[in-house]
Specification:
The complex is a heterotrimer. Chain A is about 75% helix and about 0% strand. By secondary structure, chain A is mostly helical. In chain A, helix 10 runs antiparallel to helix 14. The longest helix of chain A has about 35 residues. By secondary structure, chain B is an all-alpha fold. The longest helix of chain B is centred in the C-terminal third of the chain and has 31 residues. Chain B is elongated, with a radius of gyration of 17 Å. By secondary structure, chain C is mainly alpha-helical. Chain C is built from 20 helices and 2 strands. Chain C has a two-stranded antiparallel ribbon with strand order 1-2. In chain C, helix 6 runs antiparallel to helix 7. The longest helix of chain C is centred in the middle third of the chain and has 32 residues. The radius of gyration of chain C is 21 Å and the shape is globular. The chains are: A mainly alpha, B mainly alpha, C mainly alpha. Chains in contact: A-B, A-C. At the A-C interface, helix 14, helix 16, helix 17 and helix 18 of A face strand 1, helix 5 and helix 6 of C.
């Protein structure tokens, strides 16, 4: 069976098995996670060798069958999902037990199925289905904590998510009405600027910005992400939000390319800039660590939307390819860093019973590996070298200088300093003289997955990002 | 002509549902509004399946069926979460 | 993969790897930690020795890693980088010995020594950086690795000092980043090139070049403690003595000063910088800093604070040297990079000894300390007299060449600055020496931690300042010997000016 189908089928199969055999859910879940990651690895190697992949499930061709396709962009996101997913799985195996484990594993594997399906879907309607599956499983996972705040936040998240996807669906229907096809490539080839296409674009991208929590539609994110259990928060912030961003990027660059105007790009950029400042400001004043991390996600999503105005101003060629690679690099770095951050916060929360920043001192001091994780994740969020987001930010600034768009530079630099302020507000609590920790690692099963993710974000992606360029089809001299 | 009628009605339903979704606070009304929006979209799909061709286009039908399944599951999940909230509410 | 492409990276890794391993060492394993520390320092010294020989014989060392198209991490060795690498490697070895004596009994040792090694790794990364991008990367990493050292004690004052340090250095980092990216967008990859690499930029862009220089100087000036960006330095005196020694003599302030040298000589080129009027700006800032730092030092009673303001003043001699056109002044400025380092580290070691042994933190408590701790006070005297510029100590050589260079370049105002500064140096150092040697000792010392034995204090605390004081004398006495700092600096000046 080919790797594209396996990447979607394996987590689905594991989810079903974990549902019918709940007593062994953790074991089945871990095996499923491993198998899914292996399938993702196969897809990535094949994309690496052939550039593009596609397959029709069960020999049923489009329009009725389900087509899967992969290119460099989807491979990159698939890779991030596999690594982050593996770390979250290892962590969750130690974090959840009993009933919670029984509920967590099927939903988590279903979420992973939806993510892989979304990254590999080649037509607009399958994208809708995976989007809904993703939203529903994310909401159910978010409510897993069971307390009132978590359920209320998840319900709000569900309503926003539904509104976003139905708006997307209406856009898809308009496109089908006009072009009689759902295949991304075919619609893209046939698309002509006009009122129908413009309405479809507004509906689809507008609906997705809700799911991506772009300012001012971010209101649902902080309570939902802050009240979920730590491994779930990690998945929501690192992966689920990114899936919406990925889809926006796909539509913006592939489907609606002839339609996008400088005005629309500037609008997205302006909202992104507002998100950077507002999210950082709220993170700076958050009293709880998880709320800080959630607002930081709002700000980091903002950075990603600073790219469209620069895409608009840069003619196709190496410069534009560099910008695209920088954007993907920032998406990946944030995914790794934010999941590491949430997992580390989970360790602290379990240890001390709370996550109030002002009272962290002793706990952070006692857990050097977790404090290290916070530090490395912080470096990646600020965008300091040698993190991947430093390279990304450098190319972003370079693009802004090259196209003379000075306003964004100011936003990026202000955001950097504000991020540094909220990161070090937490880190400075880790310096108490007493107690001296007995060793570097206290609980390997939860601390090490987080540390590994943070190291990938803060060091790995910075120093080893060069292969990303050929993967994304950019600059020839990218090796 | 029927096509236009159904399509127009669909868009109208969607808009009414959206308005209701945004304006009303109680969850049940929001959910009904969401389902009305869904029906609007399905209306349009049913309308376009018939245009011009000799036999109806099967794709919109498949889409509508899938869409209904998704909408029902979403509604069920929302109701389940709301039940949970009510159970925990001390004033219940 | 040959020695030539591996050596620069190996020099960075020789402290990076031990540093990372130290984090994993259990607190109680003193011996393992000491072994890792010292073996890293010695291996690095060996690598540096090979590099000195190679660069002297025009060998090219370069390690390169591509991060993105047009964005390379390059470590390479030229005469200037070798000078800075040697300084930091030698002083790291000495400071490690000192820090073991100073901190091996206190809590959180693994964290301290881990970051200590990472800090030196980033310093040698700065020294070996082959382009402005690489310099920026290591410059920012240096900020990150020194923060935990400044905050190490965990008291509210040290957290506050570390926060101020961070606010200054990260803001500076943002300025440097902006300037660097802008220059990159304007002129492509900014490789350090002897004689400058911006000659081809058309005249109508010269306004932009001036703006970029101001940004770069703003970023570098924070670490080099140029007035008015010096505020963090006295505040970060809350750090343990070996950290202060390292920050002031080797790592942080030197990174800033070294960056200024790189930008003036190897990015803009001294002729272009002169033509754009940038040297005047730099000279004015440096002179103001020299005088302001000395004036503030006069008024400090805290010994470390007085030394801190003295650093503010002395480091700007390097920038002053860079702001005067001509090879002689270049020699004076660049050689002060080394001379200030060995003199100031001696002074900080001694200040740490007074505090650790007798609990002396203030100048007013130093009466008669010379008889209780003669060797420490002797070392302190050598450092202090060198700072004033008394021959034959190293500081005299720097001042002599700076003065000579100013006369050659017909910039006589520099002599006024040097004269005033020397008077002020004497004004804040001689009273200390007078108190220490000639005033009677008090009945009891503030807090006598270490009773007098065969040595006046612990051996690991005593030997480092004695050795570095010896280096100050040797660098002055044997200034004309081959491979002395002065001789090496003359090699740098010859290559920069293409003589």
């Amino acid at each position: 069976m080919d790797s594209l189908a396996l990447a979607v089928a394996l987590p689905l199969l594991a989810a079903l098995l974990a549902t019918v055999w709940p007593a062994r859910a953790t074991l089945l879940g871990l095996l499923g996670a491993l198998a899914t990651a292996a399938a993702a690895l196969m897809v990535i190697t094949e994309v690496w060798e052939h550039g593009q992949l596609s397959t029709a499930l069960g020999g049923w061709d489009i329009p009725l069958g389900i087509a899967l396709a992969a290119d460099g962009l989807s491979a990159a996101l698939l890779a991030m999902t596999a690594l982050v997913g593996l770390a979250i799985s290892l962590y969750a195996a130690a974090y959840f037990d009993g009933r919670q484990a029984m509920h967590f594993w099927p939903l988590w594997l279903l979420l992973w199925t939806a993510l892989n399906g979304l990254f590999l879907a080649g037509d607009l309607f399958n994208l809708y289905v995976t989007l809904e599956l993703l939203g529903l499983s994310a909401v159910a996972l978010g409510a897993l904590g069971g307390d009132r705040a978590a359920v209320a936040a998840s319900l709000r998240y569900l309503l926003v998510s539904l509104l976003g996807s139905i708006s997307y669906l209406l856009g898809v229907v308009l496109l089908y009405t006009a072009h009689g096809s759902l295949d991304l490539a075919r619609v893209a080839a046939a698309l002509q600027p006009g009122p129908v296409a413009a309405a479809a674009m507004t509906l689809m991208i507008g609906g997705l910005t809700m799911k991506a929590a772009l300012f001012p539609l971010h209101f649902w994110l902080p309570p939902a992400h802050a009240s979920a259990p730590a491994p779930v928060s990690a998945a929501l912030s690192a992966l689920v939000v990114k899936a919406a961003v990925y889809l926006i990027l796909r539509l913006w660059l592939d489907l609606f390319a002839p339609l996008v105007t400088t005005g629309a790009a500037m609008l997205l950029g302006g909202l992104g800039a507002a998100a950077v400042i507002w999210g950082s400001w709220r993170a700076l004043h958050a009293e709880r660590l998880k709320l800080l991390a959630a607002y930081s996600t709002v700000a980091q999503i903002g950075y990603l939307f600073l790219f469209p105005p620069l895409f608009q101003a840069t003619p196709p060629g190496p410069g534009r390819d560099d910008l695209l690679a920088a954007l993907v690099l920032m998406i990946l770095t944030h995914g790794f860093a934010k999941s590491a951050l949430f997992l580390a916060v989970g360790v602290i929360q379990k240890r001390s019973g709370h996550d109030r920043i002002a009272e962290l001192g002793g706990t952070a001091q006692r857990l050097p590996a977790t404090t290290f994780t916070l530090g490395l994740a912080g470096i990646a969020l600020i965008g300091l070298p040698p993190s991947g987001s430093f390279t990304g930010k450098w190319l972003l600034l370079n693009g802004a200088f090259a196209s003379g768009q000075w306003g964004w530079i100011l936003v990026i630099l202000t955001g950097t300093l504000m991020t540094a302020a909220y990161v070090f507000r937490v880190l400075s609590r880790a310096f108490n003289l007493e107690p001296t920790p007995p060793g570097f690692v206290t609980d390997a099963r939860t601390e090490l997955p987080a540390l590994l993710l943070a190291a990938i974000a803060a060091i790995g992606l910075g120093l080893a990002a060069a292969p990303l360029w050929p993967l994304l089809g950019g600059g020839e001299d990218g090796t | 002509m029927t096509e236009l009628l159904f399509g127009g009605a669909g868009i109208l339903l969607f808009a009414m549902g959206l308005w209701s979704f945004l304006v009303h606070e109680p969850l049940l009304r929001k959910l009904i509004a969401f389902n009305v929006m869904g029906s609007g979209v399905f209306h349009i799909l049913v309308a376009i399946s018939e245009r011009g061709a000799l036999r109806p286009d099967p794709v919109p039908h498949a889409l509508v069926l899938t869409g209904i399944v998704v909408a029902v599951s979403a509604t069920a999940l929302a109701l389940a979460l709301d039940r949970r909230l009510d159970d925990e509410d001390p004033d219940g | 993969m040959t020695l030539d492409t591996l050596l620069p990276a190996a020099i960075v890794f020789s402290s990076l790897v031990p540093g990372l391993l130290i984090f994993l060492v259990a607190e109680e394993s003193h011996r393992l930690r000491i072994l890792l520390n010292l073996s890293g320092a010695l291996v690095k010294l060996l690598f540096v020795a090979i590099m000195i020989w190679g660069v002297y014989h025009d060998h090219n060392y370069e390690s390169r890693l591509t991060l993105a198209p047009g964005l390379d991490l390059v470590l390479q060795a030229d005469a200037l980088s070798v000078l800075f690498v040697t300084l930091s490697t030698l002083l790291w070895l000495v400071t490690t010995v000192y820090a073991i004596g100073y901190l091996e009994q206190t809590p959180n040792r693994s964290r301290f020594f881990g970051f200590f090694s990472l800090c030196v790794s980033s310093t040698v990364g700065i020294a070996l950086a082959g382009n402005l991008f690489t310099f920026l990367v290591f410059y920012e990493i240096l900020t990150l690795t020194t923060y935990p050292l400044v905050a190490h004690r965990g008291t509210p004052e040290s957290i506050r000092g570390a926060r101020i340090y961070l606010i200054y250095t990260l803001s500076g980092g943002v300025l440097l980043l902006t300037g660097t990216v802008w220059l990159h967008a304007l002129a492509g990859p900014v490789t350090f090139t002897q004689g400058g690499m911006l000659g081809a930029v058309p005249t109508e862009q010269h306004g932009t070049l001036i703006a970029i220089f101001v940004l770069l100087l703003g970023g570098l000036g924070v670490k080099a403690a140029l007035v008015p960006l010096h505020g963090w330095l006295p505040e970060s005196m809350v750090a343990p003595a070996p950290v202060s020694a390292l920050l002031h003599a080797v790592a942080v302030v030197k990174a800033g000063a070294f960056g200024i040298l790189r930008v003036v000589y190897d990015v803009y080129g001294i002729e272009l910088a002169d033509a754009l009027g940038l040297l005047t700006l730099l000279g004015a800032l440096a002179s103001a800093t020299i005088l302001y730092g000395s004036l503030r030092a006069l008024a400090q009673d805290g010994l470390k604070k007085r030394l801190a303001y003295s650093t503010v003043s002395q480091v700007s001699y390097i920038a002053l040297g860079a702001s005067i056109l001509g090879p002689v002044a270049t020699v004076g400025g660049v050689v002060h990079l080394v001379h200030q380092g060995i003199m100031k580290i001696t002074l900080f070691f001694c200040a740490g000894n007074y505090a650790e042994t007798l609990g002396i933190h203030r100048v007013s408590q130093m009466d008669g300390v010379g008889r209780r701790m003669p060797w420490t006070t002797l070392a302190f005297s050598v450092g202090a007299l060198g700072m004033i510029g008394l021959p034959p100590i190293a500081g005299f050589v720097s001042k002599w060449y700076l003065g000579l260079g100013a006369v050659t370049a017909e910039a006589e105002w520099v002599l006024v600055v040097l004269g005033l500064s020397t008077l002020l140096n004497a004004g804040y150092f001689l009273p200390i020496l007078y108190r220490a040697w000639f005033r009677p000792a008090p009945e009891a010392w503030p807090e006598e931690h270490i009773p007098p034995g065969r040595l006046e204090t612990m051996g690991t605390l005593l030997w480092p300042p004695v050795i570095t004081a010896g280096l100050c004398l040797i660098a002055g006495l044997l200034a004309e010997a081959p491979f002395s700092p002065l001789e090496w600096t003359e090699l740098i000046a010859r290559r920069e000016y293409g003589l």
